[in-house]
Amino acid sequence: MTPQEIELKHEVKIYGKRGITLVRGEGARVWDDTGKEYIDCVAGHGVVNIGHANPAVVKAIHEQAQQLITCPESFSNPTRATLLQKLNAITPPHLSRFFLCNSGAEAVEAAIKFARVSTGKTEILCAMRGFHGRTMGALSATFNKKYRQPFEPLVPGFIHAPFNNAGKFAEKMTDNTAAVLLEIVQGEGGVNIGRREFFEQVQQLCRDRNTLLIIDEVQTGFCRTGKMFAFEHFDLQPDMVCMAKAMAGGVPIGAVACRADPDIGVGKHGTTFGGNPLAAAAAIAAIDFMLENDLAVQAAEKGAFLAEELRNINSPKIREVRHLGLMVGIELKEKVYPCLEKLAEQGVLALPAGATVLRLLPPLVVKHDEIIKILKITTELL
Ligand SMILES: Cc1ncc(COP(=O)(O)O)c(C=O)c1O
User: Fold this and answer.
1) What is the 114 CA–ligand 1 centroid distance (Å)?
2) Cα of 313 to ligand 1 centre, how many Å?
3) 262: confidence class by pLDDT, cuts 50, 70, 90
4) Which atom of ligand 1 lies closest to the CA of 217?
C-alpha cells in the first residue's frame, strides 16, 4: 500500500487529502515520492518561514537531542532559559513573561484562561470571520459555523462583532468583558487585513473599559507580514500575544507573551511538553536566522513585488489581491479548489482561505526566480 492508502485506511478521516505524498524539502521547494518538484506556498500552513530543512535548525535539533530532549517546567533548563531571553528581546519591553506550549490552539487556550483568571471576568469578544484554532476554547473564539456547529455546546461567554468595525465592538463590550481577541490579518478567514484605526480604537476601548487586548499572531508572527509581529505595523501594545507556527522552523511549539503582571497563580495551568529543550533549541536557531537574515525586510520586499505583479494580471477571474508582507490572498470570482489542483499540476502548492480566496504563504527565503515561476504559473492559470 502507498503512504496515502495507509493514511486513508488508518487515520481518523478529518483531513481532505490533496493526493500528493511529500518526502523532502529544501528552502522554498518540496519534492513528492515520484521526484516531482514544487514551489511550496503552503509551507506547512505558514510554518516554514525560514525554509524547509534549514541547516541552522537541523544542527540545533541534532545537538540538543544528544543532550536532553525533555525537561518538565518544574526543572530549569539552560536552552529554555535562552529561548525566554530571546523572546523577551524580540517583543516590546512590556511583554516580559512567556508561557511555552506546543501549538497555536494551545497558545490561544492559555491566553483565554489567563484573561479570565487575571481579570475575574468571563466574556471574550472576538471578530467575525476570525480563526483561532479547534480546541473547545479556541473553537469558541473561532467564527465559522462549519467548524463550530458539529461540536456545540461550546464554551459560553464568546461574543463576535464585525472585523474592522470598532463601533460594533464598543456596543458588544460589557462590564464582564475579560478580553478582546483579534488577528491582525485574518488568515483562514480570507486574508482580511485589519485597519489601523480599527485596532487603535479597539485598544483605546480596552484601556477605557479595563479589558485586555489579546493579539493572535499564530499565522502572522515571525516576520510573515514584514515585521517580526504584525501588530508592530500599528501603534499597539497588546496585553497578550499568541504565537506558534513559524516559531521553531517546523518543530511544534507555541507561546503566549504576557505583560509583566498576569497574576495567574502557581499550578493553575500547565503542559507536559511545554518548554521542552528540543523545541526550544529549534526556536532559538529559527529566531536567530530570522534576525541575521533580516527576514522581516525580505518578506516586506518580496511580498510587495509578488502582490504588485499579481495585480498586473489582467484577468476577469480575479476580484482583488490583498497582502501584508508575504501573506498574500487572491480573491477569485470562482471557487478556489479547482485552481489549487491545477497549480499543483504545474508545480506550485497553494492554500485556500475560505471558498474563493487563493492564499500564498511561501517560505520567506523564497528566491527571486522562484517568485517569477509562481507568477508565471499563476498568470497562465488565471
Ligand atoms: C490565527 C490562528 N490562530 C490559531 C491557529 C491554530 O493553530 P494550530 O493549528 O497550531 O492549533 C491557527 C491555525 O491556522 C491560526 O491561523
Assistant:
1) 18
2) 31
3) confident
4) 1
Domains and CATH numbers, the chain: 72-292 (3.40.640.10)
131 lines ligand 1 (CB under 6 A): yes
pLDDT digits 0-9 by tens, 282-295? 999 999 999 999 99
Q: Is the separation of the CB atoms in 186 and 180 below 8 Å?
A: no
Ligand 1 centroid, distance to 153 Cα (angstroms): 21
> In Å, how far are 175, 195, 215, 262, 267 from 179, measured between CA atoms?
11, 19, 10, 13, 22
Provide φ and ψ at 165, rounded to 5°: -130, 90
Sheet holding 123-127, edge to edge: 95-101, 254-259, 240-243, 212-216, 177-183, 123-127, 158-161
What is the value of pTM for the model shown? 0.98
Look up residue 67 and give its three cell numbers.
543532550
**Cell digits for 88?**
523577551
Q: Convert the pLDDT of each residue in 342-358 to its tens digit.
A: 999 999 999 999 999 99
pLDDT in tens, 130-156: 999 999 999 999 999 999 999 999 999
Average pLDDT over the chain, rounded to an integer: 97
Q: Is 367 exposed, middle or buried (0-12, 13-18, 19+ CB in 10 A)?
A: middle
**pLDDT at residue number 260:** 82
Whether residue 283 contacts residue 253, with contact meaning beta carbons closer than 8 Å, is answered with yes
Contact by Cβ (8 Å): 257, 111: no
